[in-house]
Amino acid sequence: MNNKDSAGTNFKWVGKRTRRPDGPDKVTGRARYGDDMIVPGMLHAKILRSPHAHAKILSIDTSKARAFKGVKAVVTSADIPDHPLTKPPYGPIITDFHDISCNVLAREKVLYDGHAIAGVAATSERIARAAIKLIEVEYEVLPHVLDPLEASKPDAPVLHDHQYTHGVDPEPEKPSNVFRVVTGGRGDVEKGFAGADIIVEREFSSQPVHQGYIEPQACIATASEDDSVELWTTTQGHFVIRAFCARLLNMDMARIRVTASEIGGGFGGKNNIYAEPVAIRLSQMTGRPVRMVMSRSEVFRATGPASGTHTRIRMGAKKDGTITAAEVDIYNQAGAFKGSPVGRSIETFFSAYTIENIRASGYDVCVNRPKVAAYRAPGAPMAAFAAEGTINELASRLGMDAVDIRMKNAVREGDQSLSGIKYGQIGLLDVLEKVKSHEHYSAPLGPNQGRGFALGYWMHGGGLSSVSANLLDDGTIAVATGNPDIGGSRSSMRVMAAEELGIDIEMIKPIVADTGSMGYSHLTAGSRTTFATGMAVINAVREIIDKLRALAAKKWEIPVEEITWEAGQAETGRDGIKALSLKELAGMATKMGGPIAGHSEINAGGAGAAFSAQLVDVEVDPETGFVSPKRYTVFQDVGRAISPDYVEGQIQGGAVQGIGWALNEEYVYDDQARLQNTGFLDYRMPVASDVPMIDAVLIEVPNPNHPYGVRGVGEPPIISAPAAVANAVENAIGITMSSLPLSPPKVLNAIEQGQAEKD
Amino acid sequence: MARNLVTATINGDEVEFTCSTEQTLLDVLREDLHMMGTKNGCGSGDCGACTVILNGRPVNACLVLGVELDGANIETIEGMAKGNELHPLQQKFLDHAALQCGICTPGILLMAKALLEKNPDPTESEVRFGLAGNLCRCTGYDKIVRAVLDAAVEMRASKS
Amino acid sequence: MVDLRYESPETIEVAVALLAAEGQMARVFAGGTDLLVQMKEELVEPALLVDIKKISETRLIAIDPDQVRIGAAVTGAELGENEQLKAMWPGVVEAVELIGSAQVQGRATIGGNLCNASPAADSVPALIAAEARAVIAGPDGIREVPVGEFLTGPGQTSLGLGEFVTSITLPKPPEHGGDAYLRFIPRTEMDIAVVGAGLSVVLNPDGTCAAARLALGAVAPTARLVEAASEIMVGNKLDDTVLEALSAAASETCSPIDDKRGTIEFRTKVAGVLACRVAKIAWRRAENN
Question: Which residue segment(s) compose the domain that B75 sits in?
Fold first, then answer.
C-alpha cells in the first residue's frame, strides 16, 4: 500500500490543527442529540423497573395502567418475541438474543435493581410516569449476589438455572454463575517460577465503573403500517442497533431505518440496545411515534458499567529484571448476563512483555448487577492495574527503575501478544525512552507526594466500514460514513480526504449517514474508526481521483496512464495541456458521462497495537487520605496524529476517566442490593478542579498498514491510568494499594495500618 | 392542571408561555419553546449541562421553575452568538478544540461567560473551581480551561 | 397525580395564611435546589408551593448595631458578595458559599439550607458556632429559636403549622473574635459534606481563649455542638495539647452512620482532624480582629 509517511511526503493537512467540522453547531446549541428531536404527534414512554436485585416475577397486572387517562399502550415481555435458549453448553458466543431479550424486558425473573419490566406510552411523560406506578407486579424475592468471588462459589444464589460453566473439564453437573473460563498461556509456568530470583504474589480488586456520558440514552421510534420503522437514537453504531432490533423483534432488517443523532458521549456504553425495541413495539401498538428518554438514575441503574474484578496474580523475575513467569486468575463481573470482557483482560495482562512462561485464566461471572457494557479498552484497565502494580513491586524489590524493568522485558517487532498477535512496527521502546528522557520523570517531588508509573497495551481492531463520497458540480465533496462521530472522526475523515485529493479541507463536507443510505458499518468503538473507516474514505476518494483522471483523459483524448493527480488537479507531462482542477472537472462530469462518486466497503485488517505510558504525581493528605493529582503526563504511540488536537483530547479525556476510576468512582449498594448512588452527586466523576492539566506527549511510530500510519488512540490512555495513580499513592504513603477506588477512607486506613505496623 | 401565564425575556426577545407549576425552566425551554440548545444531563443540578443565565446569574435550568420567571431575563446558548458572529468564548472553544461530543459545551460556555464577567482575569485554579459544576466526560477539562483562559485574555484586550 | 399550585405572596402574613390553610401539603419554596430534586425523585409531592422570595424581609441583609439579620431567601452568591458580612462572620459566609456549584450558589438560600435540615448541611455547624438564631413567622406571630434547637432530626425542624423561617440572625461579632468552617468531601467540589466543622472563638487580650464554640455536621442525626471544646480551649493558647484534646473531643462527640458518603470510622477520625484545622483558621482570624 502507498504509505505516504514512509515516502516522506510533506502533508498539507495531516498533522495540522484545524477547527472541527462539527464545532460551530456544537458551540451554538444547534447540534441535535438523542433528546433534541421532536416528531409531531409523538407519545412519551417510561419504563417500570425492578426494585429488587433478584426475584421471580409471579405476575404482572397492567390493567390499571392501561385504563389510566392518556395511556395509549403498555408493553411487557409478552409483547416481544421470545428467543429460545441456546442449548447448553454454550459456545463462546456472547451475543445471545435470549439474554438481550430478557434484559430489554424481564421475563421470568428480574436480575438487578433497575431491570426493565414494562413500558408505557402516554400523551405526556408525566402521565407515563404516573401510569407505570399503577402496574402491579408480584415478586418472589430471591437471595442476591453482587461480588464475583462470592458468585463463583458453589453455594451462591444462581442467576440462571440453565447456565453451566463452559470451558472446564469435566463438564459441570450443576448450574453456575460462572459462564465460562477463558484460558491462555505459553511456556512452562512452574519452570519459569523455578528460575526466578524473586516472586511477587498479590490480589487486586476493582469496582464496576460507569462510562458516565452526560447525554442519557434517548430515542424516538416511528412505526408504519407496512411494518417499516424509523428510529432516531443516540448510539455508537446505528447499523448494529438496526441488526439487533430486527433480530430481537423478528423484523426484516431493511424495514428498519436508523438515524444516529449527534452523540453526547458513549465510551462503549452506547453500543447496545436498551429502550429502542420497547419504543418500536409501543409505536407499532399505538401507530404513533414514541419517544423514550432515560433519566440519569435509569442510566446508572440499568445501563452497562465496566466489570468489577478480582485478580490473583503471581510474577517472578531474575535479579537483572527479566520476568521469567507470570500467572493470573481474574474474576470479571458480567452483571446479570454473561459477556464480561474477560478475553480482553487475559490478552492485555502481559502482552507488552516478552514473558516466556504465562498461565492466565479468566472467569466470566454473572452477578445481580446491570449487564456490563464496553467501556474504553474493555477489560484492560483492570488487568493493567494488577499486572503493572505487580511489576512495580518487582522493580521496587529488585531495586530497579520502573521504566528500566519494562525496557528489559518490552516486546519489539516480531514478538507476539498472548493471543498470538505478531507485532509489526510498534513504538513501545520509543515510548519508554521518551518517558526516561522527559523532564517530568526526574522532577523533584514535594512533601506527601509520590510519583507513579504504568504502561498500557491495546491490540486495536479494524472491521467493517462503508463510505460513500460524492463529487458535486461545484467541486465540493460530501463524504458520508456510517460511523457516528464520537471523538472527532468527521474531522479526521475530512483531513484524510482533503490530503488525498490535495484540496482545501473546507471543500469536504463529512456527514454521518443513516442505515438506509450506506453499506454496513460496524460500531464507532475500539478506536477503530479513524483507522478502518478512514481507510475506506481514502479508498473512496482514490476512486474519485481515478474517475477524474479518466475524465481528463477523455477530455484531452490521451491515455489515462499519462495523467497524474497532483495538488488537486489532473496533470499530464505533455506540453500545451493546461492542468484541470477538481472544480473544472467536477463541472464537466455530468455532461461527459455522469456524476462521479467513490465508494468503499471494506473489512479493514492490520490495525496497529499501541502503548500508552503514564507518569503521575499525587499528593496525599496524611490525615484524611485525600488524594490530589498534581501533575500528569501521558506518553503514547499514536501512529500518526491526523488531527493532533483531537488526539490529545482523546488522551486527556481517557486519562481523567482513569483518574476517576482510580480515586472515587464506584457503585454503592444497600443490603438489599439496591443502588444508592444513582446520580452524579454521589457517583463521583472528576470535576474540573479535581485534576491538573494532562500533558500529552505524542510519539509517532506509523502503522505500516494504514496509508497515513494511523493507529487507534482512544482506548490506550485509560488503561494505565488506575495503575499509575495507585502506584503514585503507594509511593506517597509507602504502602501497597491493591483495591480500587483509592477513596479517602481506604487510603487513610492504609496509612494508619502502615503506621501501626511500623510501631 | 393549573396553568400559569408567564412573560419573560429570553435572549432579548419577550416571550410569553404557559406552564404547569412543576415544569422547570429546562422543561419550558425544551418541551414548549423548542430551544434544544440547553441540554438535559441529570435533572438534579449535578452536571451543569442546562446552565443558563437568569437575571445575570448562572443557574441550572433544571432547578428553576417556569412559574417563577414572570419578568425574568434569561440568556441561553441560542443567544450567545450575535447573529453570525460567535462570542469570543465560542471562537476559542473551536480554536482550542475544547469540545468533543459537545453535550456539555453550551452549559460550559454560559458558565464561563458568567465567570469571566465576574472575574475577567482568573487563574487556572479559579477557572477550574468556577467550572466545577459542569461535568465533561470527554476532554479531561484541559483544553476547556485553556480556551477559557485564552478567551479571558482576548476579552480583556478588547475592553481596554 | 397531584395538581400542584404556586403562590408568591408579598407579605409574611399572606404566606403564613397560605401555609396554614394548606397544612402538610404545602412547601415553602425559595432557591428550590433541594426541593425540586426531592420532587423529581418523588420523595415529596406537595400540593402548594409558597414562594417566599417576593417577601422583602426574606431578601435583606441588614447589619444593625447589635446584630446581623440575613433574610432566609438570600442566596449563597449574594452572601459571598457582601464584603461587610464576610468581614464580620467569614466562617458563616464560607460555609454557605460551599453549598453546590456556582450555578447552585445563584439559587440556594441560607434559609433553605437550614430548613432542609440535612445532617450534612454546610451552613448549620457554622451557624451553631456563631450562635445564630432562626426568626420564625407563624399564625401566633414571630418567635426566635437558636439554630441548634431549631433542628430536631434528619429532615425535621421545630416548625409548626403555618410557620416558616423569615430570617436568620447573628450576634454582632465579639472583639478579638473569629470564625471558620471546613468540610471534608471526596472531591474538591460538588459533594455533600462527609464531615463539616464550624468553630467560633474569642480571644483575651493576652492571646488566650476567652470563649469557643465548635459544632460538627454529618456526624450525627443533627449538627452537634462539641460541649467539651469550650472547656478545652478557654484560658489556653492553641498549642499541641489543646489541639489533641480538641480532636479527641470532636471524635467523641460523633455518632455517625455508614452510608454512601462515608463510614463511621472515617467520619469519626476526620471530625477530629477538621476540628483542629478549623480551630487554627478561626484563631488566626480572631488574632487579626
Answer: 3-79
User: What integer is the mean pLDDT of A381-398?
Assistant: 98
Same domain membership, residue A537 and residue A483 = yes
Q: Which of residues 4-23 of B touch C (CB under 8 A)?
A: 4, 20-22
The chain-wide mean pLDDT, for chain A, equals 95
Residue A623 contacts C where some CB pair is shorter than 8 Å: yes
Regarding whether B29 and B55 lie in a shared domain, the answer is yes
Domain boundary pick from A293, A327, A344: A293
Q: What is the mean pLDDT of each run of 10 residues along chain B (160 residues)?
A: 90 97 97 97 98 98 97 98 96 98 98 98 98 98 98 93
pLDDT digit string (tens) for A688-733? 999 999 999 999 999 999 999 999 999 999 999 999 999 999 999 9
> Do A241 and A339 share a domain, yes or no?
no
Question: What is the reported pLDDT for C241?
Answer: 97
Q: Does C263 touch chain A (CB under 8 A)?
A: yes
Same domain, A490 and A579: yes
User: Is the CB of A97 inside 8 Å of chain C's CB atoms?
Assistant: no
Say whether both A378 and A451 belong to one domain.
yes
Strands B13-20 and A55-61: unpaired
Last-in-domain residue among A584, A604, A624: A604
Whether residue A259 lies inside any domain: the answer is yes
Q: Are A651 and A477 in contact (CB under 8 A)?
A: no
Enclosing domain of residue A520: 23-31+462-604
DSSP A685: P
CA distances from A304 to A62, A92, A210 (A): 28, 20, 7
Q: Give the pLDDT of residue A90.
A: 52
As for how many domains chain A has, the answer is 3
**Of C16, C57, C56, which is closest to residue C168 (Cα–Cα)?**
C57
* Structural domain contains residue A17: no
Phi then psi dihedrals of residue C145, to 5 deg:
-135, 135
Q: Tell me how far apart the alpha carbons of residues A364 and A358 are, in angstroms, rounded to a whole number.
A: 20
What count of other Cβ atoms lies within 10 Å of the Cβ of residue A41?
8
Number of domains in chain B: 2
My answer on whether B23 and B56 are in the same domain is yes
The secondary structure of A157-174 as a DSSP string is: PPS-TT---BS-SSPPSS
Closest alpha carbon to A708 in A582, A530, A541, A542: A530
> Is A24 in contact with B94 (Cβ distance < 8 A)?
yes
φ, ψ dihedrals at A391, nearest 5°? -65, -40
Do residues B12 and B56 share a domain? yes
Which residues from B are below 8 Å from C32, CB to CB?
63-65
8 Å CB contact between C94 and C79: no
The answer, for B32 touching chain A at a CB cutoff of 8 Å, is no
pLDDT number for residue B2? 74
Which chains sit next to B, with 3 or more Cβ pairs under 8 A? A, C
pLDDT, averaged per 10 consecutive residues of chain C (289 residues), comes to: 92 98 96 96 95 97 96 98 97 97 97 98 98 98 97 96 98 96 97 97 97 98 97 97 98 93 95 98 96
**Confidence (pLDDT) at A9:** 60
pLDDT at A410: 98
Q: How far is CA A507 from CA A21, A471, A584, B15, C277, in A?
A: 11, 10, 14, 40, 61
Question: For A505-523, what is each residue's pLDDT tens digit?
Answer: 999 999 999 999 999 999 9
Alpha-carbon distance C53 to nearest alpha carbon in chain B (angstroms):
10
Q: Do C53 and B44 touch (CB under 8 A)?
A: no
pLDDT the model gives residue A2: 40
Higher pLDDT: A85 or B2? It is A85
C188, C263, C273 ranked by CB distance to A745: nearest: C263
**Residues from chain A contacting residue B106 (CB–CB below 8 Å):** 27, 29
Q: What does the pLDDT average to over A553-560?
A: 96
The full set of domains in chain C, from first to last, is 5-171 (3.30.465.10), 177-288 (3.30.390.50)
For residues B41 and B20, membership in a common domain is answered with yes
CATH number for the domain spanning A55: value is 3.90.1170.50
What confidence score (pLDDT) does residue A85 get?
82
Is the minimum CB–CB distance between A27 and chain C shorter than 8 Å? no
pLDDT score, position A93: 53
Residues 87-146 of B with CB under 8 A from C: 111, 114-115, 129-130, 132-134
